Amino acid sequence: MQMGGQVHAITQAGSPYRSERNGDWIKIKIHHRQEFVVVGYTRAAAGIGSLLIGLHNDAGELTYAGRVKSGFDSRTLTELRPRLRALERPVTALKDSPRFTKGVDVAWLEPVLVCEVRYAEITPKGNVRHAVFQGMRDDKPAAGISLESSTPEQPPEPRKTQIRITHGERVIDPSTGLTKRQLADYYARVGDWMLPLLHDRPVSLVRAPDGIEGEQFFQRNTTGLAIPDIETMHRPSGKPAMLINTSKALMSAVQMSAIEIHAWNATTTDLSRPDRFILDLDPDPALPWLHMIEATHLVCVVLQELGLVSFLKTSGGKGIHIVVPLTPKDDWTAVKTFSQAIVKHIAKLIPERFSAVSGPKNRVGRIFIDYLRNSSGATTVAAYSVRARPGFAVSMPIWHEELSMLQGAHVFTIQNVFRRLDSLIEDPWAALPNTAQTITAQMRKKLGIR
User: Fold this and answer.
1) pLDDT at 254
2) With pLDDT > 70 as the criterion, what percentage of the chain qualifies?
3) CA distance 136 to 197
4) Under 8 Å between Cβ of 303 and 342
């Protein structure tokens, strides 16, 4: 048990403890709760991208404690906007002003508001990791908020949380020797990043019971193979959809030999209206990586000229996924037609670089911009999902600004991904959940559609 850090171990009932890893033991994270002073916020399309928080040190000075980017619902954001704007000040009240990535729009506040936050740990630099907003604490005076009030949440009951990973020593990627146990460890650790993006979003799984060199199965529902802890949602038409909303469900999927997680472009709030569309840049394998970088920049410029904010992630293979969040309004047909019009427009502008038609013959020397994933029931590999390919690359959210520095879409793997995540000052997708935008008549007119 590692209470000073962020994990403790639980085991299958009756399994003896052994210091080495084995298929009976998994790690379950411990979280802490703490009140923090709200010292500022970052602006986003929806008004608030994240809260900047601080704590008083022993000398009574306010020190920076990091950012809170998740846990907000639309009602909370609506209520917070006027409160924060009324408290804006030109300079920070912190002892030392933190540095932010270029382009981050920061507003400093009078340090009078207090919020409660759940977090995994506080780093040696004093910043919270995996912070989740729990609510405002108007009953607490800001002047008395310091680290001494931090209390760990009670660990979950073992009987309710234990997931046994069987055959954990089995090698599932012969090219690297990576095992099922290592894959399970990855998903257990990355859950804090991945699960908020999967929440209430139907998923499909790529399963490889005999490893990636054996037969692989694309599973869209639980018919024929029920997976413990994965929720199902009945739909008016079609078979029940699968949902992975908890760490337990994610680990159950791994136990049942899932390697890849793919997700819909809509959530259970309204499955008939997508909340995003995705353009998948799929290159001729012979093209140099520089062409992919240039192509991604060009597509993003077109989206920007239309007035749309986009987010990027590596595919974990050869391409880049451009994710455009939407406020759910249009149906699947309208969104797919719009995304197809963008692709046709770009292919018409630069036909020597882009193709709007699928198939290997149509992308020789070019990049096919795949819009077909924007159909009802279609899926795209989820952010932070492992790919069932040699090397176990990960589909990784990235900044637009760092695209030019990448050496390929497969550079992030389960063996190096946490060096990146642990070093991030800000989540590249922090503003995505709060980005409010719709497809307008003016956008359609620019593309020549109704």
Assistant:
1) 95
2) 89
3) 23
4) yes
Q: Three-state secondary structure along 288-335?
A: CHHHHHHHHHHHHHHHHHHCCCCEEEECCCCCEEEEEECCCCCCHHHH
Single-letter amino acid, residue 263 = A
Q: Is 93 inside a domain boundary?
A: yes
And the tokens for 49?
Answer: 């991208």
Give 279-291 pLDDT, tens digit per residue.
999 999 999 999 9
380 with 340, same domain: the answer is yes
Q: Do 320 and 176 have their domain in common?
A: no
pLDDT for 441: 96
Q: Among the three residues 152, 186, 214, which one is the final residue of a domain in this structure?
A: 152
Other C-beta atoms closer than 10 Å to the C-beta of 448 total 10
Residue pair 395/316 in contact by the 8 Å Cβ criterion: yes
DSSP line for 417-447: HHHHHHH-SS-TTTTGGG------HHHHHHH
pLDDT over threshold 70, residue 45: no
Q: Give the Cα separation of 133 and 50 in Å (integer).
A: 10
Rounded to whole angstroms, how far apart are CA atoms 107 and 105?
Answer: 7
Does residue 192 fall inside a structural domain?
A: yes
Q: Which domain holds residue 113?
A: 32-152
On whether the pTM is more than 0.85, the answer is: no
| Per-residue pLDDT at 30 | 57
Is 118 inside a domain boundary? yes
pLDDT tens digits for range 87-119: 999 999 999 988 877 678 899 999 999 999 988
| Contact criterion met (CB below 8 Å) for 87 and 109 | yes
Q: Is 267 helix (H, G, I), strand (E, B) or coil?
A: coil
Please report the DSSP string for 158-174 in residue order. HHHH----TTTT-EEET
CA–CA separation, 383 and 195 (whole Å): 10
Q: Mean per-residue pLDDT for 121-128?
A: 84
Distance of alpha carbon 199 from its chain centroid, rounded? 10
∠ CA(157), CA(163), CA(167), 5° rounding?
A: 150
Whole-number pLDDT of residue 78: 83
- What is the C-alpha separation between 436 and 46, in angstroms, rounded? 6
Q: How far apart are CA 427 and CA 410, in angstroms?
A: 19
CATH number at residue 285: 3.90.920.10
What is d(CA 437, CA 435) in angstroms, rounded to the nearest whole number?
6
Over 70: is that where the pLDDT of 298 sits? yes
From the CB of residue 445, how many other CB atoms can be counted at a distance below 10 Å? Answer: 10
Q: What pLDDT shows up at residue 144?
A: 82
Q: Which residues contact 318 (CB under 8 A, 6 or more apart)?
A: 282, 283, 285, 292, 408, 409, 410
- On whether both 286 and 429 belong to a single domain, the answer is yes
